[in-house]
Specification:
Layout: H1 3-20, E1 23-33, H2 41-52, E2 61-65, E3 70-73, E4 79-81, E5 100-104, E6 108-117, E7 122-125, E8 128-129
Helix pairs in contact: 1-2
């Protein structure tokens, strides 16, 4: 279960940013996790819930977006969707070559943190309190 280290990292980021921005409560955490990241969302969510218990992030909504796998053809540069279960997507639709690199699908980002500050509602975007 490699989810464990990932969840620990996310919780550390969330709690550190919340402390830096002096928030009272974290109400939501937005993650972007590419489809090539082999994680179980239910395990991830359960671990997040357990690790945030008795912290200012307890009860925070975890919102996970899963961008698709996109490839870039090394021959012509075309970017296209890849589906392991659909052979029609295993070749570049522009030039039919099978020589490609991963363009997206490996992302793992904390995209935003929603919080209730000690003064007025705010959010944390890219490490900045707003």
């Amino acid at each position: 279960m490699h989810e464990t280290s990932l969840v620990y990292n996310v919780v550390d980021i969330v709690l550190n940013q919340a402390e830096n921005c002096e928030v009272e409560r974290v109400t939501g955490v937005h993650l972007t996790i590419g489809r090539l990241r082999d994680i179980s969302e239910s395990i991830f969510e359960g671990m997040f819930e357990r690790l945030t218990r008795d912290t200012i992030a307890e009860g925070a909504e975890l919102v996970i977006s899963r961008p698709p796998i996109m490839l870039r053809c090394k021959s012509c540069g075309y970017v296209f969707h890849f589906d392991a279960h659909d052979e029609a997507t295993h070749r570049c639709p522009a030039c039919q070559d099978k020589n490609y690199a991963i363009h997206s699908g490996l992302e793992f980002l904390v995209g935003g943190i929603e919080a209730s500050p000690r003064k007025e509602p705010q959010s944390i975007q890219h490490g900045r309190c707003t």
